[in-house]
Every structure is written in structure tokens, then in C-alpha cells.
Amino acid sequence: MSLIVNEVQRDIRTRILEAAGRAMADGSLPAAPTGDFNIEVPADRKNGDFSSNAAMAWARDLHRAPRMIGQAIVEHLDLGGSFLQKCEMAGAGFLNFYLSDSYYAAILQDVRAKGDRYGRSDYGKGKRINVEFISANPTGPMHMGNARGGALGDCLSAVLDAAGYDVYREFYVNDAGNQIEKFGLSLDIRYQQALLGEDAAQMPEDSYHGEDIREHAAAFAAQYGEQYLHVPEAQRRKALVDFALPKNIALMQENVAKYRIVYDKWFYESELHKGEVADTIALMQSKGLTYEKDGALWYRATEHGGEKDEVLVRSNGNPTYFAADIAYHRNKLEVRGFDKAIDIWGADHHGHVARMKGALEAIGIDSGRLDVILMQLVRLVSGGEVVRMSKRTGKAITLTDLLTDIPIDAVRFLFNMREPGSQMEFDLDLAVEQSAQNPVYYCQYAHARICSIFRKLANEGVLPRDCTTQELERLNAPEERELIRHLSALTEEIVGAAKNYDPARITRYTIDLASLFHKFYNACRVSVEDESLMQSRLYLCACVRDTIKNILTMLKIDVPESM
RNA sequence: CCGCUCGUGGCGCAGUUGGAUAACGCAGCAGAUUCCGAUUCUGAAGAUCGGGGGUUCGAAUCCCUCCGAGCGGGCCA
């Protein structure tokens, strides 16, 4: 990856080292081995475009005051043939480097040359990553946690893809185990109640009490009448589950599609129960990781960092969710051979993380290959107050409700404005607002405004043309420089978002880009007499337009040319 | 009781492997502009970075401790 920003940083590093070498050679600095140092972008632009702490970092190695070392480096520095214009020492010994005009022109030419690939990199080196997200229980409607998980998981996947990973999106369908039995039981009782009256059967405390269960049962009763009342219980429940589960899964797939998420795979837990769960349990037994107690099979978790031992197979013979999950992760990392698995879970599952990783280690899989992103829950806010129930249905707000009320663009963007671990509020009023207050609208508007400039000038007979480096170097107003510097940071920003599993960096980057564009727009008129300057500014506009388009397209958000 | 996550102006939040005067937006105050698309800009004010200790040239960031919030600690998932 030949990023101009990275090249300059590497260049600064070698030039500092060369200068230090010369200073040591002529006795300005004592000759001694020196440690590591940083090149960074200072928070305050007054301190240069790049800054190094070399003089401070070496103070101890060389037994000299930081400022004295810095002075010697500056005096021996050779900036010939670089994008660097000058270097000054400041503060406690910082070496501040200033970029030359040619750097800014080079950035713009780079953006245009890369076109719709600008921002992409090969940082991830094609490593295969499985990102599993949403993975809602198919026993009921999807909720707000699934909404955030969907926006986060899909945009994170997009970011990882742009950073050069081979990304595989996966939805884990828990269509087996305890909760399915509970689902069948709940449907069964509602079915009997539907036909025989409310008193026919009692719903246990821990069954599913949602209205959706009643609706499924009623639909089933309407279709089959009483014919299932007199068959064995197990057969009746199976028929009910076979009736309702596909409907729930279909609804999930419908919602997910509306959300613009395309999964590479819907992985059914039931597939694992055809052998892999048993194999995994057998593997654990063969490794001596288990023992029997009270008729159940236990895993010695305490010997692998756990706080207490865990049940793998219940005394009734059914494997636990934990056992299936071990098999599932073994499937991802060993059977299918992904380099890495990323799971997005609700924060309430955090207790499961250490258990899961411990179990992977115990069966010989490097637990570092599993990363779990814990996501805090979301509260919906409207009119400054927390909203719990849907106004229309009077029931808890589902993902379906959200997607019918709020534009998908807003949902995808706004759920990615905070890092996953922070608990956030989702402002329903803001999400539908068509104004600069709404961050998505603000970013889309910047793009539309640029398109409008091109349209207007085209009507006047002005068509954009290529610009020479000298022309682009004329873009030296502070607003133009800020904007170009921000453009140059995109690739690094995407890599940073990938490294930290935090797509919020990209939404923030885009807001800043739009904001810097508006500042430029107000300070520097594009349509001016000076043809050469106008073309340079059009060139900059095109770079901003294409960059916004690249990002929004990456996040699967509409990029309107007018609005 | 134990464990995990988190505490940054009135509100919402940024702060990368420790770096320069803790950034930005909203509300509010004073003013300018209202010209390519419904704006935008400038200035002032506002923070003991939850409290206290420690590590060092240097801490919002790392360590300890206390306070507060949220969530966990099932043969639930």
C-alpha cells in the first residue's frame, strides 16, 4: 500500500535518524544507541503537520536535555527532495515538520487516481474473517439490540473489507435446543387455549408470553382445527414448531434484507446437532476435560480459568447451549478454517466470553482467534423521553416497527455513531429530521451540494478538466488545506476503525468531512473569473464528492445527487 | 460477596502505542454574513477529565484504592 501519508511519515523517520547520525559523527551529539520514537499528527495545527518526540525519547539514552538534542537534529536535518518544507523545534523538544505545497497537490491527484477504490487498503492481507452478528432467537420478534447489532455488524464488515480482509457475514440461527422446546410448549398451550378456552391450560412462568405466540397458535388452529388436539404431545409440538419457526425465520430474513444486509450464510444450530456437538463433546472427554456428576456431564472449566465447572450434557441427555457453542466455534475456526471469528453479542452475555475462550484453549484452539464485541443496549428517545412501547401497537418496539418508521439510511448511520461498548440513546425525532441537525442528512447534503455546483457550471458551459500540479498548488487557503488534509486521512481512518472494531470512526470522519467542505464552500467561491483557480477548486470538489460517495456506498447508505 | 464494562463543561460526546493550552457539536451570550442549494463564520463564557494516591521529563490515557452507574454470577440462552 503506497499511502502518501505513510510515505511521508517513513520519510521523516529516516531523515531524523540520518540527521542524528550526522550529529553524532561530528560530535554534536554523543554517539550512543537510541530507542524508539513516534511520528504523529499534532492536535494543534500550529505545531506543524507532523511531529516527532525523538529528542525527548532519546534524552535518557544520550544523557542530554531534550531541547539540546532537538536543536542538534534540526541543524543536521536535510529535507531535500521531500514533501517537507521545514522543521522547527518547539515546546519541550518536539520536532515539528511542515508540509510543502506539492504535498497537497499530490494528495488530490492520489484521490482522483484511485477513484472508487480510494480509502481501500491491503492492511488485512486477505485474512479470512467470519463476522457473526444479530443471531436473534427465532422464537420471537427482533428487538432494538438486534437493530444496533445489525448496523454495527454490517458496517464493521464493510470496514474490514475496505481494510483488506476477506469478510464473511454470518447469522447463527438458534433453531435447536431448550428455547425451541420452550417455543413448542408455549405454542401448544396457546393452541389449546385458542380451541378450548383460556382455562384449558396454564402458561408456565418461564414460557414465551408474547402476543406473537398467540397469533401463531391462532393461525395454526385456523388451518388445522382440532386435528392436533388428540395426537401425542411431542408430535403436536413438533407440528407447531414446524409451522411457526419458518415464519419467524422468514420474517427475520425479510427484516434483514430491508436493512440492506446480505449474509454469506445463515448457519442453523440444528446442523451442529447432526454430529458436531457430539464429536466436540467426545473430543473434550478424550482430553480428560470432563467428569460425570448427578447424571450430567461436566466440563472442568475451573482448570481452564473458569470460576466454576459447566454442564455440557444435562441429566436428561440434551447438550447445553454452551456445548453447542463450543462446537460452533470449533466449526468456524477449525472445520471451516477462518483465520478469525468476530462475534457481536449483547453486553449481558459478557460472562460467556471468558468461558468460551477458555473452552477453545482447552480443545487446542488459540482463543486469540476469537474476538467478541460486547454491545451495550439501546434506549429509544422521542421528545426527550425514553420510549418503551410502540404507539401503534402498544407493545414493545420491534425491529419491524423501527424499519417502517425510520429511513434505513438513518438507522445504519446513527447506530454507528458511538463505539459499540457505550450505551447509547437513539433519537427517533432526529432520525427522521431532514435538516443539518441530522448527521446522515448533513453528509448526504454535502454530496448533493457538490453535484449541484457541477450541474450549475455545466449549464454555464463550464466542464471540469484535469489540472496541473502547479494549479492544484494554488489551493492554499486554510479552509482548502484543512479539507485536503482530512481527505488524506481516510485510508488510515478505515484501518484504525478495522483495528479497533469501531465503525463509529468512519461516521465521525464523514461528518467532519462534510463540515470542512461547508467551511470551504463558504470561504472559497468555486465559480470565479480566474479559470485556472476555478478548475482547481472543482478538482477539490470532485475529490470530496467521490470520497463521500465511497464511504456512504461502503456503508450501504444512499448517495443522492440532489435532495 | 465476586466478576466484567464504564464515569470527560448544562447536555451529547472525541481524545490512536502516555505528549504541547483537553478537541467538537447542541442549548445559551455578543456580533458579522445571508453571495454557487435551504447557511456559514468570529468572539466571549463554561471542565478540580468521579475522588485520592502512585509510576516519570510528561497521565484523561498505565498501576493501586475508594465512590457511583449498568450488566453478569442457572442442568437459561
Keywords:
563 residues; Gyrase A, domain 2; RNA-binding; alpha/beta; 4-stranded antiparallel β-sheet; 5-stranded parallel β-sheet; 15 strands
Broad structural category? alpha/beta
Indicate the proportion of strand residues. Answer: 5-15%
State the fourth-level CATH superfamily of the domain at 4-99: Arginyl tRNA synthetase N-terminal domain
CATH class of the domain at 4-99: Alpha Beta
Radius of gyration: 30 Å
What's the overall average pLDDT, rounded? Answer: 90
Distance from first to last alpha carbon? 36 Å
Widest sheet: strand order?
Answer: 7-6-5-11-12
Write down the CATH topology of the domain at 4-99: Gyrase A, domain 2
- Helix content class: 40-55%
- What overall geometry do the principal axes of the alpha carbons give? globular
Question: If helices are DSSP runs of H or I spanning 4 or more residues, what is the number of helices?
Answer: 22
Low-confidence stretches: none
Please report the total strand number as a whole number. Answer: 15
Q: What characterizes the major β-sheet?
A: 5 strands, parallel
Which CATH architecture of the domain at 4-99?
A: 2-Layer Sandwich
Describe the protein in words:
The protein has 563 residues and is an alpha/beta fold. It has a domain at 4-99: Arginyl tRNA synthetase N-terminal domain (Gyrase A, domain 2), CATH 3.30.1360. It has helices at 4-25, 54-57, 59-62, 66-76, 101-114, 144-162, 178-196, 211-224, 233-258, 269-272, 276-286, 321-335, 350-362, 399-405, 408-414, 428-432, 439-459, 469-472, 478-488, 490-499, 504-523, 531-554; strands spanning 39-40, 50-52, 84-90, 94-99, 128-132, 166-173, 265-268, 290-293, 296-299, 310-313, 340-346, 370-375, 378-382, 385-387, 424-427. Helix 6 links the parallel strand 5 and strand 6 (166-173). The longest helix has 26 residues, at 233-258. It is globular, with a radius of gyration of 30 Å. The mean pLDDT is 90.
